[in-house]
Amino acid sequence: MLPQHVELRQVKYLNNLIEQDHRFIKRLTKPGMGFFSFETAWRTVQGFEVMNMLRKGQVQGVNKGDVQGQAALVARLFGVVA
User: Total structural domains in the chain?
Assistant: First the structure.
């Protein structure tokens, strides 16, 4: 049962932006034939998302062409020595 205030919207392409956004992840993970555990999937998708955001220039504080800043951010996020 849904609460009274929930509105059902039946628009064919309402979530198209969401579907298009994760299409690149499906393309990257398909050759790997899936994941062996949820933890592996979680870490891999995190990496894909960070790299995609960097490529699109969506990270605040790091410019799109600032390679050193991007490398430092990735090192901080994932605990990798830059």
Answer: 1
